[in-house]
Amino acid sequence: MLLDLPEVTILLQELRQEFEATDLRTLYSAYLDRFNSVTDWKFSSGDYFSPIPYESERMGFSSDFLIKKKYKSVDEARWLGKYCAGFVNGRHVITVLPSQRTVKALHATLYDEADSILEMHTVSFKWIGKPEKMQSQVRGIRKVISRPDNTKLDVVVGLAGAFSINLYQYSKDGRPVSVRALSKGWTGEDQLEYRYTSDGRLDEITAGGPIPLWKRKK
């Protein structure tokens, strides 16, 4: 079981401690610093720049795609339901998530990478523009660790004790071929397989049964 791996136990504990210790008083200024550092914005239909490929397909949705249209602002794009990924010198540092224009709130994920470890903080802010009422919240902290054996350990903790654990096996050419997955509330682990066409495109994702979770449209 994934929960029996010492590395997972230690990482869950570290992430929970970090989650509880976050200083919410400085969270919005940290977000603004990151947002204002961006030199290039790219827009997409979904979380196209997620650190693990095919996450939308794994959930049974259509593939994410980049949008060539340029928007007047990140606000315009997110109010139209687009994901806004910000880069500094080619390095992905933030993604602002879609939000409704009528709701004075925003959600974003901040990215920090060092060596083989990528850490992400998903944050939210309510009552933007009203300092006396504004509320900051950390909704999740995630680490993705690239390991020497072509695997990636992906651990997330969130609100109310929520967590998920994924252990991905990659091929030598950098494509995910399988994942062991476990989340709070599940009765056991899932094992998913990624299958590809002869030209290297994802063809289907299966979970051990005859019906795929996702299959490429012909």
Radius of gyration: 18 Å
Total of domains = 1
The largest sheet is:
13 strands, antiparallel
Helix content: 10-25%
Low-pLDDT windows of residues: none
User: Mean pLDDT score, rounded?
Assistant: 94
Walkthrough of the structure:
The chain has four helices and 13 strands. The chain is globular, with a radius of gyration of 18 Å. It has one domain (2-215). It has 218 residues and is an alpha+beta fold. Strand 3 and strand 4 form a beta hairpin. It has helices at residues 6-21, 27-37, 55-58, 74-79; strands at 40-44, 66-67, 83-88, 91-96, 105-114, 117-126, 135-146, 151-158, 163-170, 176-183, 190-196, 202-206, 214-215. The N and C termini lie far apart (37 Å). The protein has a 13-stranded antiparallel β-sheet. Helices cover 17% and strands 41% of the residues.
Concise account of the structure shown:
This protein is 17% helix and 41% strand. By secondary structure, it is of the alpha+beta class.
Write the layout of secondary structure elements.
Layout: H1 6-21, H2 27-37, E1 40-44, H3 55-58, E2 66-67, H4 74-79, E3 83-88, E4 91-96, E5 105-114, E6 117-126, E7 135-146, E8 151-158, E9 163-170, E10 176-183, E11 190-196, E12 202-206, E13 214-215
Antiparallel strand pairs: 1-2, 1-3, 3-4, 4-5, 5-6, 6-7, 7-8, 8-9, 9-10, 10-11, 11-12, 12-13
